[in-house]
Amino acid sequence: MSENSPTVTTTTTRPTFILVDGHSLAFRSYFAFAKGRDGGLRTKTGIPTSVCFGFLKSLLEVMATQQPQAMAIAFDLGLPTFRHEADDTYKADRPGTPEDFVPDLKNLHELLEGFNLPIYTAPGYEADDVLGTLAQKATAEGYKVKILTGDRDLFQLVDPEKEITVLNFSPDALKRSTNSITEVSTEQVKERLGVLPTQVVDFKALCGDKSDNIPGVRGIGEKTAVQLLSTYGSLDGVYKALNEIKGATQKKLAEGKEDAAKSQFLAKIVVDVPLEVNLEDCKLVGFDESLLIPILEKLEFTRFLSQINDLQLRFGGTVVETPKTETSAIETTNFEDDDIAFYTAEETQAIQQNQPASPIQPRIINTEAKLIELVQILQQFTNPETPVAWDTETSALEPRDAALVGIGCCWGTETDASAYIPLAHTKGENLNQDIVLAALRPILESADYPKTFQNAKFDRLVFLVQGINLTGVVFDPMLASYVLNPDTSHNLTDLTQRYLGLTIQNYVDLVPKGKTIADINISAVANYCCLQVYATFQLVAKLREELAKTPNLDKLLREVEQPLESVLATVEYTGVRINSAYLHELSQQLEIDLAKLQEQATELAGEKFNLGSPKQLSYILFEKLGLSTKYSRKIQTGYSTDAATLEKLQEVDDTGFVNAIIEYRTLSKLKSTYVDALPALVRPDTQRVHTDFNQTATSTGRLSSSNPNLQNIPIRTAFSRQIRKAFLPESGWLMAAADYSQIELRILAHLSQEPLLVQAYQQNEDIHTVTAKLVFEKEDVNSDERRIAKTINFGVIYGMGSLKFSRSTGIDKNVANEFIKRFNERYAKIFAYLEGVKKQAISLGYVETILGRRRYFDFTNNSLRKLKGSKPEDIDLSKLKNLGPYDAGLLRSAANAPIQGSSADIIKIAMVQIHEVLKKYQARLLLQVHDELVFEVPPQEWAELQPQIKSVMENAVKLSVPLVVDVRAGENWMETK
């Protein structure tokens, strides 16, 4: 063609690439259906489906209107990113994730994989960064990109030249009959924010973003930010022209320059994340129906199942049969009210013929003749390798308040090897409870008949209330699962699915709100209960097979966790007496003390304010008193007034105001948490508080307690110790406490074999004085120096750094750093041991206690992940840089886990052994509080029992250093200290 030939313009339509902001759409899907729908959409078996349904509904709507050729979804990992490392307050005020969102999100990932849609994440980055990076890659390969999100942060990616737009859905985008997804280009960004896409980052740098805790420039709002950017073009332009800007705005900008720069950094989306992406994988080419259909069936998406061919075509696949000529429900994607109702909690029922046949046909024992026959069958099973599985059905979760509605048992895998005994159903034929318990007592109370229960402690308590002392429980799947991996789920539904591939019915699907299991017909409960015992029976062999792979864990279950279950049940059943009258007096005294503190704080502030209001307190601290905000962090209501902030402000406040606030908060918390709460928890029938001990709740092996949490009864201050005075023994008895002395440091000495530490304990020296001499490098040390050494000794176990050490002791940070350096040099084997444990966590993915209890660690940092499987001795921790707070925290936890876990193991062994000792006495174990056991003892038994308790605890496990236990008695718990 010659230069003079006319120009020919050709227009090529670029293919469309849809990028999806996964978490944004998932959360909107959840809340669209969770509100007003009894917790959201669920399947018949209780699986939450709000996220999956709403997400798929939105995708289909977008696909119908946009006709994309490629699609990818980006998700956050839920872990700290480079932004959190730069500012630990970033997104700190986001609300917690709803409990049922997590399993729904997990199912969503399965669903998306079933549709053959690629999912991208990047450690250290947010989904926004992944989306920005994918958008640049896609446009470079000839796509026009549309980003589906509800977040206007992504408006900064809009680029008309590259054909990048945002498909923005409003909060009501998923409501019925609402099409609220709108395409946002440059004009719409300007219309909505008042700035261009290229100015969005600087806009946020100036006015901030409360939802993400991006501070912006204090006092600069959106309107002013728009005016500044309209005039000066950019943040850089604003500050170059700062002298031209007049009045208060100039002052605010000058004072907020640092915050503006930080906010700009936080707001800017990274578009060059190191992602390994092949965009060919993102093309819509259909899906494998054999993979997708089971997922849709699990979610009970029967409407989508009926339109599987339409779905296949929509996702770029082909079908063998001719598609329907009429417009399909999938194609229109205008889901009407009946579509939504189809998935509500009450109406999401699976089609009966699609349900798998039940593997059991329970025997319903509703006559004495059938009961006699059942007893004869059960008497045949005495092999502990195949224990009979049992379960109780009750009308309430508190055993003392519950009616025993029925009992189930299973003795084999045959369809008729299970039975249900109805005792207290409101309809149908029940057996007399006294007759049933009399017939079963010889079996239930005999160790000759081995038994297995899921969560045996609950059933043991149920039987205790009925006068049955359950004996012969040899296996609890919940405890076995906990020993195998404490961080997995241990409920029967999940265990059954995980190990047996069997789905069992949930209680919430069987029993409607406002009803109890007694109101449900007997045959339905029989099937429900017997499926549970059928699963429990089979789990014994499966879990024992897993335990056999790690003999130490098998031994831990058999010798520690399993026998401990009956000990905890006895402790819970016993309860502890509370002096409610004394607590009432204490509460009145607290009211007076709090009023005085309120008056003192008001006087110091110069005006009345609500001490319980963080917003008002923030105003007093940072505006009225003029304390520096550098000690705090920006939040939605102003500046944080949390405990960490007050601790820092305490050092610079010479008015006494901060001290008054700290004391007010401390006393107020004691009053609400314990002084006023404990009397309300006293049972009228026993006049005691009965806490629940949680045996499978922690990662370390420690016990926790709830309803109420007695493990956190404070002791540090004089007033908090008075709360322990309210805990009483049986009338006329003594309260006794046995407490391990420095058990974690002794365990550290044993594990590290540090000669100085081992020698100090073997020679009964004061370890804190020994450490003080080493770090202060002198022989004569005073009490303050010993206190500082004590802080180092205990702090090193938890990975305490110089900053925290400095704050805890009040010494200069540089001095604190030098002390820790000396500690590591003087106690070289301690340092080497802790480093070695970290290397083991990286190499093996777990660490172990003295008894072999494991805690697993899953790191997110790529450099750590790549080292898994390496020899620990080949790992150089000094070369691991920029781990981020999450992985750094995991490494600290890994170093501590063997120590804390061994401490838990030791006191558990002591509890089991003491339980046997107490069988010869009237004395009772009342509480376990970390390293302390609390008893009530008749005075005449104390002299004989005291040395036995001390001996058992000190010899529970043999270490290379002695365990030392202090045992004391008094009229109440406070007097045992």
Automatic annotation (TrEMBL):
Catalytic activity annotation: DNA(n) + a 2'-deoxyribonucleoside 5'-triphosphate = DNA(n+1) + diphosphate
Keywords, sorted A to Z: DNA damage, DNA repair, DNA replication, DNA-binding, DNA-directed DNA polymerase, Exonuclease, Hydrolase, Nuclease, Nucleotidyltransferase, Transferase
Signal peptide start-end: none
Residue ranges of domain DNA-directed DNA polymerase family A palm in the record: 720-941
Role, per record: In addition to polymerase activity, this DNA polymerase exhibits 3'-5' and 5'-3' exonuclease activity.
Family to which this protein belongs: Belongs to the DNA polymerase type-A family.
Full protein name: DNA polymerase I
Organism from which the protein derives: Trichormus variabilis NIES-23
Taxonomy of the source species: Bacteria, Bacillati, Cyanobacteriota, Cyanophyceae, Nostocales
Gene behind the chain: polA
